[in-house]
Design brief:
Helices cover about 80% and strands about 0% of the residues. It has 17 helices and no strands. The relative contact order is 0.15.
């Protein structure tokens, strides 16, 4: 049981937004399963085409979403996004009920989802500094990871059962309701404060008008942003390669048709476990050192995939998921501190768009290295996780110390979890 005393969940505004975002994300996970079921049931349906249209538009929509999140009221932008997606997804079960659902209809819905995906994916973290005080930033970021973990597990599992029993139409209808729940939660949220006052109104206004240029220059100039972005991009390429390796290992382990799902669930379980740990206990070590160490531990954990025992592989994958979730929480807290509030929308949209784009590169890497065996691919994944951490360790640690000194607060204390520091 998580102690909510003094945590972000004791903050009514954050609690409403978090609940709404979690429900909406669970709906997204469920509706994807339903869309796949619809595609498989259509004579001309293609799951591959559906997947491409569901993901590829993020590269375009993400950049527009970042600009919009810094230019307009983020809360109302998220409300509009939720209502628009509710209308779009609502056409699917309606068309199916009337006997007019086509593959083109499914593809258009998937493309709209891809275009709008980054609005909520970057909008929620951009709202966090407005909803909670600085001392609760890390707890709030950990709760975002918890949200994704719960949503992914509940949404996918629930959809699998529902599609098999009552059909995909009901699943998509539930997703429509989840968008409306998020919209209602946002409308009912009153935000009394403003994002961190590290930047003046004129400066913030200039950044809002400046497009991506100021954000890119900030990412190059600020070591915390630059180093973590490069580290995470390479780390994600490694995770993308791992997703290609795991099906092969599942077969070699003799885990059956569901083996791949078991191994992926181990990673997800590790992510959720780490997020819960960060919520429960205060984290006092330096965040920059922690990011470096977690990346190195993750590289070692991946080696367990080569173990002859599937149980050893599962333990290693749980460790990998835990390290990845902790790194994300710590790095996001650092980024919120290092970047002015006026660029948070563009910054998180750009970073998350980049992270969405890197796993396919990992798949390509796996296709090349698997020719030399699974061990070669796993070693390449380890290198992608460990080498950048070693190269940036000194620069990132110094930058974290300087960032803490500039704010006048020791870095570990800034990251203390609500009320426990």
């Amino acid at each position: 049981m998580i102690d909510k005393s003094g945590s972000p969940l004791s903050n009514a505004a954050f609690r409403r937004v978090w609940i709404g975002a979690t429900v909406s994300a669970a709906g997204d996970a469920a509706s994807w399963v339903a869309l796949v079921a619809y595609a498989l049931g259509l004579a001309d349906g293609s799951v591959a085409t559906l997947a491409v249209l569901y993901t590829a538009p993020v590269a375009v929509g993400g950049l527009v979403a970042g600009w919009a999140l810094d230019r307009y009221d983020r809360r109302w932008l998220l409300v509009g996004d939720s209502l628009l997606r509710a209308v779009v997804f609502g056409t699917v079960p309606l068309a199916a009920a009337l006997g007019g659902l086509t593959d083109t209809h499914l593809y258009l819905v998937a493309a709209v989802y891809g275009l709008l995906k980054m609005t909520s994916l970057a909008g929620f973290p951009a709202l966090i500094p407005v909803l909670v005080p600085p001392r609760q930033l890390m707890a709030a970021n950990a709760l975002e990871s918890v949200s994704f973990g719960i949503a992914g597990l509940v949404g996918a599992v629930g959809a699998g059962i529902a599609v098999a029993t009552v059909g995909p139409g009901y699943v998509v209808a539930v997703d429509v309701l989840s968008y409306l729940v998020f919209a209602v939660c946002l409308v009912g949220t009153r935000i009394s404060g403003r994002p961190a006052r590290a930047v003046s109104r004129p400066a913030a206004a200039r950044r809002r008008r400046g497009g991506l240029g100021p954000v890119l220059r900030l990412m190059v100039r600020e070591p915390v942003l630059r180093d973590t972005t490069i580290m995470f991009a390479l780390f994600n390429i490694g995770e993308g390669a791992l997703l290609v390796v795991l099906p092969e290992r599942a077969v070699e382990f003799g885990l059956g048709a569901g083996g791949y799902g078991y191994l992926v669930a181990a990673v997800t379980g590790g992510e959720l476990l780490a997020a819960l740990v960060l919520l429960r206990w205060s984290w006092r070590p330096s965040l920059t050192r922690s990011v470096v160490l977690a990346s190195l531990v993750a590289a070692v954990a991946v080696l367990a995939v080569l173990a002859p025992s599937p149980w050893m592989a599962v333990v290693g994958l749980v460790g990998l998921g835990g390290c990845a979730a902790a790194m994300t929480t710590w790095a996001q807290t650092l980024r919120m501190t290092a970047a002015p509030a006026g660029v948070h929308g563009r910054l998180f949209a750009l970073l998350r768009t980049l992270m969405q784009a890197t796993p396919p590169l990992g798949a390509g890497l796996a296709a090349l290295t698997l020719r030399d065996g699974v061990a070669a691919t796993v070693l390449a994944i380890c290198a992608l996780m460990a080498v950048p951490a070693l190269l940036f360790a000194r620069d990132l640690t110094a930058a974290g110390a300087q960032l803490a000194a500039d704010r006048g607060v020791p870095e570990p204390d800034r990251a203390a979890i609500g009320g426990q520091a």
